[in-house]
Amino acid sequence: MSNSILSVQALTFPWQTSDPFLFCAFHKDNYPKGNGQMGPNANLSGRNLGSDFAGKDGWSMYHGQNVPGFPAHPHRGFETVTIAEKGLVDHSDSLGAAGRFGNGDVQWMTAGKGVQHSEMFPLLNETEENPLVLFQIWLNLPKANKMVEPHFAMLWHEDIPVFNHIDSQGNTTKVNVINGKIGNYTSPSPAPDSWAANPENEVAILTIVLSPNAEWQLPTASAGVNRSLYFYAGEDMEIDGSTVKRGNMIKLDPTKATTLLNGKEESKLLMLQGKPIGEPVAQYGPFVMNSNAEIQQAMNEYQNTQFGGWPWAKHDHTHEQGRGRFALHADGREEIK
């Protein structure tokens, strides 16, 4: 058996990624019951409110003061792919667009020439805990698309294809095809100006769930494509015969089929794959361009224009308590789930 593993390294926050990706922030928070105002029904003393990343009591407020999350902040020059595996996200942005999504939904946002947005985590359940499991993947834009118009698309969980495999022992593997293709299952279209919009770039974003003892073979991709697995839940598994523990990133040779043989617990992995953009990357906080001069220009423009300003009453804007999943686009189009 040929071994497809190139390297294994421990995950740190944020998760390391390879071109065309910039990084992946993984959030797992066991939020308590809500307080009726979408915040936690808990004493917030002892937390560094405004920058709480310590994970005290199993959860963080992040940059939120009353509701956990990330109040209004700018981006330019890249995309965010936000996978809300569990829990809810309230999105608001400087274009007047908004939404509430979660529990398997994915938001694909192209920052392009510049946008402000907020991402708050409303704790709507007041009788039970409000667990959150969320990935935010930063996907770079090539120079030709750095300054496109901002855009976001919703990939509702009902529309994300699920590939199911049953092995010879009756054990199951489930693959959510967020981007790319597995067998006859092709993902919804990403944002139109994305590096992922061209199938030749072989961008794949998959979440993989293996039942205990399940075996599945990940199909091959082209030479030169970067491919990494992120093993974030479970205990251990064998990858091409090598034992790998939870909490590791596994870089793979995409030209070799990879055999996953799970251990005794359910395991979950994220796979990121794509042809590298291969351009210089200059990054300063929320701005990702090709040169330091372009970063300085982005900072100056944000100071002067606020990328269109902030049309909402609060920087930590949340939607109505009883509102369900929805997306309001900048052109006035509304999706309700």
From TrEMBL:
Q: Which residues form the Pirin N-terminal domain?
A: 63-139
Q: Kindly give the CDD domains that the UniProt entry links to this protein.
A: cupin_pirin_N
Q: Which domain of life is it from?
A: Bacteria
Pinpoint the Pirin C-terminal domain residues: 207-308
Give the Pfam families listed for this entry: Pirin (PF02678), Pirin_C (PF05726)
- Which SUPFAM superfamilies does this UniProt record tie to the protein? RmlC-like cupins (SSF51182)
InterPro entries reported in the protein's UniProt record: Pirin, Pirin_C_dom, Pirin_N_dom, RmlC-like_jellyroll, RmlC_Cupin_sf
Family under the similarity heading = Belongs to the pirin family.
PANTHER family in the record, alphabetically?
A: PIRIN (PTHR13903:SF8), PIRIN-RELATED (PTHR13903)
Q: What is this protein called?
A: Pirin
Q: What organism does this protein naturally occur in?
A: Roseivirga ehrenbergii (strain DSM 102268 / JCM 13514 / KCTC 12282 / NCIMB 14502 / KMM 6017)
Q: What is the lineage of its organism?
A: Bacteria, Pseudomonadati, Bacteroidota, Cytophagia, Cytophagales
